[in-house]
Structure formats: C-alpha cells, structure tokens
Amino acid sequence: MEAVLAHLRGAIERGDYPVGQKLPSESALGKEFEVSRSVVREALRGLQALGLTVSKTGKGTFVTATGPVENPTFGTYSARDLFEVRRHVEIPVAGYAAVRRSTDDLDLLGHLVERMDLETDNTAWVALDSLFHITIAQASGNPVFGKVIEEIRDALARQSSFLNQLGDRRTRSNTEHREIVTAIAAGSEADAVAAMTSHLEHVENALTTIVRPSHTTHQNKDD
Known about the structure:
Domain HTH gntR-type: 1-66
Shape: elongated
Helix content: 55-70%
CATH class of the largest domain: Mainly Alpha
Largest sheet: 2 strands, antiparallel
Distance between the termini: 29 Å
Keywords: DNA-binding, Transcription, Transcription regulation
InterPro entries: GntR_C, TF_FadR/GntR_C, Tscrpt_reg_HTH_GntR, WH-like_DNA-bd_sf, WH_DNA-bd_sf
Organism: Amycolatopsis decaplanina DSM 44594
GO molecular function: DNA binding; DNA-binding transcription factor activity
C-alpha cells in the first residue's frame, strides 16, 4: 500500500495527473502494481486524506491538488480539530485516570498493551488503539470524557491507520502507550500527564512529517 500511495502521490505532485484528471480505476491500478483492489483502495484513501484527490461515487477518483493540504481530514474531522480536542481532553484525562483508576481499569489497560505488542494486523491494532484511549477516558471516573472520545473514535481510527501506514508509528506508539500505563498504574498524575503529552506530540509530529516531508519537526526534550 505504501508503495502504491508513494507512486501515485509522486505522479500527482509531478503533474503526471493534473488537477481535474480522473485516476485509473481500482482494477487498472491493481493490475499495474500487481496488488489487490483492497490495497489500491487503501492507497486511494491515503491520497484523499492528504487532500490530493476526491472520490465521487460511481464516477471514480479525481485529482484536486498538486500537493497535500496541511490539515488533512479523517472522516468528518480534520487533523487540527482532533489535535486541539485531544490536547484539551486526553492530557488532563490521563492525570485523572492516574488518581481515580480501578483495579479493573489497570487490568484492562495492561491486557490491551500486551495485545497491541503482539498484534501484526494493522486493522486489529487500530481497533485496540481506539479501545485503549477510550479505556483511559473511562478510567478518569468521568463518563463525559468517555463520550467525547467515543464521538471522535472513527476519526481517531482513520488517523491512526494513516500514521501507521505512512509514518511507521506502531512500534513507537506501543512504547508510548506502555509509558502512559506505567504512570497511571503508579498513581502519578504528573507522570501520566507528561506521558500523554509526549505521545500526542509524537503523533502530531509524525503527521506533519508525512504531509510536509521536507519540514523538520521540532523534537520535545524527552526525545
């Protein structure tokens, strides 16, 4: 998928497919790259998330820009929307979870990080990732936080899949998730807040790198 997306992205940015032109069909692209239509479909979703194309039902995929947008969309929410909400919700939520979590919460979080370490299927990992963040919100003891994360669950899953496929984020995310759980298990509000802050900064930097490959992202002091 990464190879197909990289090729199509390069072709669009070079002008091989000008704005307004229709891309070859999924079937034709599958034959050209010798991959399944599901792989092509994922690559096309990546192009759309980058803001390079738009898919029109029954008509195909059309080029809309020669370069990626700085604020890609995932479902009904933009990356900027998601990061803004996550910074103001998930960071304090991690702190609340550290002082309010139950034994059951810790058991589930431990189980989730173990499964994520072993999971090789990207779709399954993304589902576990969503459940991980929802579980932390529920562990805060405030049901409203859980509802907020549930509302953006689909967008978070799309963004997570995008970052895993194009930014190779999965292994690093597993490490960051363990750091968050360790802080919550220790009951340290400050450490949980710091761990979640670091995680979200790495996610945001990874997305920036994908959208603007030549852009040098800032690194936080813990890198």
